[in-house]
Amino acid sequence: MGKVLDYLELVGRASGAELHTLFGIDEELYRLIGEKEVSVHVDPFGAKFYRFPYYHTKREEKDEDSQVKKLHKLQHERDRIVRYIRDHPGLNGGELIKKLRISSITFQRKIEELLDEGRVTRRRDGVSWIYNVKEGT
Questions:
Q1: Angle separating helix axes 2-11 and 26-34, nearest 10 degrees
Q2: I want to staple 120 with a disulfide (CB 3.0 to 4.6 A). Which of 94, 95, 98, 114 is the partner?
């Protein structure tokens, strides 16, 4: 039993044919499925594969950690913009882009998120948008 579980832990998932070729373990695999130590899944193309129930591979854990870090980074970037606008109210978008040293695309995306969240306000001043932090933020 250990060799199948060890292999699935290493690779994350495997087809029945792959497990049979490597280990020749039809009875062992069915027993593991019956004992709920291995679960059966079907991919979008209809092929069966086997893995630990609720098991995450090292790569999936790394991907989840990466997503969490990315979310923290995105939140940090938005917070940095809010702090700068709070400390320097009344600047337009071009001035903020230069001072924050970010691309115009990044600024547009982040400022739209902040506007949607209600953390920042903007008003027209001729052809420019002037940004301020919303009161209470």
A1: 80
A2: 114
Residue 21 burial class via C-beta count within 10 angstroms: exposed 0-12, middle 13-18, buried 19 and up: exposed
Amino acid at 89: P
Contacts of 42 (CB under 8 A, 6+ apart): 48, 49
Q: Check residue 89 and report its DSSP letter.
A: T
Q: Whole-angstrom Cα distance, residue 100 to residue 62? A: 30
User: Using CA atoms, how far apart are residues 56 and 116, in angstroms rounded to an integer?
Assistant: 34
Rounded to 5°, the CA angle 80-81-84 comes to 85
Please indicate, yes or no, whether the overall pTM of this predicted structure exceeds 0.90.
no
Q: Render pLDDT for 61-88 as a digit per residue (tens, 0 to 9).
A: 666 667 777 777 878 889 999 999 999 9
